[in-house]
Amino acid sequence: MAFVEDRFSVQRELGVGVTAVPLGEFHLSTRIPTSAGGRTVTRTRLHAMLTEALTDDAHPFPVALVCAPAGSGKTRAVADWARETLAAGDAPTIAWLTIEERHNDLDVVHRAILRSLTDTGNPRLQKACAGLDSESPDLGAQLSAALHELGENIWMIIDDGHLLRDTDVLTDLESFMRWQPPMLRTVIVGRFEPPLALQRLRLDGKLFTLTAKNLAFTSDEAAEMLDEHDVALSPADLDALMDRTEGWAAGIRLAGMSLEGHPDPSRLIAEFTGDRRAVADYLIEEVLAGQTDEMREFLLRTSVPVSFTVELAEKLTGCADAHGNIDWLEHHNFLISRIADSPTHYRYHPLLRSYLRAEISRIGHVEVENLELTAAHWHDEFGDALLALEHAVNSGDHDEIVALLARTSLALIVGGHGEAVDRLLTRAPRSSQDHPSARLIRAAAALASGNIPVATSTLELLDRRRSGLLVDGAAESRLHLLLRESLRVQTAIGTGDIETALNRLRGVGVGTSGDPDVDAFVLLQEGRALLFLGRTDESEVVLGKSLAHARLGDAPLGVMYCLGTLGTVAMSRGDVVRASALADEALTIGRTHSATSDPAFQSTKLIDSWCRYVRMDPDAARAAAESAEALRRANTGTAGFAEGAATLFGLDESGHRHSSVTTLHAESPVSSSLPVPPGVRAVLLPAIQYAYLAAGEIGWAHELATETHALLGPTGDTAVVEAIVHLHLHRLDLARKTLQPVLDGELDCAAGTNLIAAWLVDASIALARKHDSRAHSALTEALRLAEPQSVVRPFHDCGPLIRELLVRSTGRFGVLEAFAERLRASFPRSESAASDMLTPRELELLVELPSWRTAEQIAADLCVSVNTVKTHLRGIYRKLGVTSRRDAIAAAQHNGLL
């Protein structure tokens, strides 16, 4: 296997300075490299890190190591930093030494060190070096003494330090660094650590290190580099390029050259791989040059999987010392890294792997297929069904693909990989795509993407070919049947006829497969069906079993799905505390396992935003809007509900309320066209009804009441929605008659929050009839129901009458007074001219009223007569429109005077 090499061609293309030196000759440069053509990206953060490390007052590092693979921009970054340092005031003397060949000699290195110090132009340093003998065996000690006596800040930069090999040179440099004078700083730049005893310096806290991770370009730095080529990418394209290059400087530079003037940057970035000529040339010359044939073969074979362990590398290569090869590659920074979450797994840089994958055909098509099958068997053995299937598809082996599908389709569907598998199968042989297991996965993928018609037709086709599911006997056929009927239930939730689908699923035998992951998935679908049928008690029991199976099977995403659905059950009941707790746990799992893009995660986030909404958390609208956007991108059936909910939750922040209510009506989250559980529909109804009435849309309010009755039937929730309309139209008798069965407990509300709304409507009816005692009693009952859940929103929905009643009744709610005070504080202060009407003396007396001291006591404190106090008090009552001290205090608080 041969790699074509063209010396210096890629360096010239990248604009890297090259010193033309015969191959066999040893050469050392003592000049700071300059950026070709004056082009450079200022790496401010790297400059700051180096400067701080070498000059920190508390703990300066005497030695710094800048170590990263070829093409990471090490030399350029350090050279720019050196020039920047020299341009600043009170700069140190900087000596630069570049080693450009591997033939090491102690005398040559000694002479080069002295020359680099002399070439700095510092006359005192030149004089100190002039008396030193480069051939002296103890030059290190002499130089240390001379620099110590000089007493000036001197920084020595040794570039390409990885080329140092000679034992005498390394021993001499090691000793010098360990005992170098305090004013000297040594910076070693190289592709990998030279064989110096650097670990001792690390343990002594004397070595600062910049790694490939530090040198990787940030998005902003990459954009600056691309700007040098007049390339400006969209955020999405820049993110895609960063994924391709992982911040590797050479990759970004080569991409910039290719993108310059290109008409379709997105397409080029998608096709920007290691087999592009410019990238391939650089990899051949700078990364792969000098490797043995055996190592090149090892690299090709281990590039088959995305990541590999030592054991998998042995199987792919047949190399007994795979561990030694990987250690060598890792030590030499060969564009290889460990996976953070799995430190025993290794991966190549994406551009290097794509180059190797392009070159692998040289070992023969049959051998490549065997390698793919080896990787497939490996991942299958260790339970990674998706990767196993990917390698099986890459091999093109129909029998292996079908066998894997038969064994793993359950795990793939339960794990939510339907869409990924569907994409993979488009590359599989046609015969594999027609296999029943493949069609089952295709139905799951269609459901995940919200394509109900495709899911329905696929399931109908499977019904006609049911016998094809008998793969390994009746037991496995039953597992497939369970999954098929579970997918049918999911489909029915979007199309209707849930009861029939649920009965078919139960006919197979729910929760008895013996596989906890499968049972968790099947029970989850049964629980969801019951939830959409409005049978929340049954749903909660079934979902509890599903959650237990998911936890037993150690399936974190399954646990997230169960918790999110249980949160929906709690929301349907108006149980804010439980809904919030369940949603919080589910969201934590989703974030921990990087599942934030999962539609189920975003749906759970909607539950959390509703909990915030009813508690008047200002973040509710933002959270709902984020979920709506994510679900819209995923094209899921819940996107319409999310958009309507986000509109409802954002009405308070809307500057154009009527236009927002119009949007709410157009995208109503309780629309009959959306698949919404009855309880969730019920819990949002009063707020929507109040929004319609506040906007003056009586027709929409009547329409909502009619539609609610049709969807929910004669429930307490329906009665509340109808009573709100009657109250608005001042049909007080009809409103009370409609509401009475709810207040008497004869008609249950699906959502507990709607019972709060019912008592608030009753309080409003009593206020309209001037029945203050009845109003206070109804308000107290609403407070009693709302306080444990911290529910605030229904009190705001009812309008100013309830707010004024809360204020007038200050101090009359007993143990509920603290919650009542929180409610009062949640209302915005109303603007009033009362403060302008009151005289300074009246305002002074007003402040004294909440103390409940007598007129005589207040008069004594204010040094006025009792009659004067009483005169001012009458003025306060008249101007505030009240007749008692209690009402005056309440009115003053309402108007922001207290």
UniProtKB/TrEMBL annotation:
Name used for this protein in its record: Putative LuxR family transcriptional regulator
Keyword Protease: no
Keyword Metal-binding attributed: no
Superkingdom assignment: Bacteria
Keywords: DNA-binding, Transcription, Transcription regulation
Domain HTH luxR-type stretches: 831-896
GO BP term, example: regulation of DNA-templated transcription
Entry-linked Pfam families: GerE, WHD_MalT
InterPro entries: P-loop_NTPase, Sig_transdc_resp-reg_C-effctor, TPR-like_helical_dom_sf, Tscrpt_reg_LuxR_C, WH-like_DNA-bd_sf, WHD_MalT
GO MF term set: DNA binding
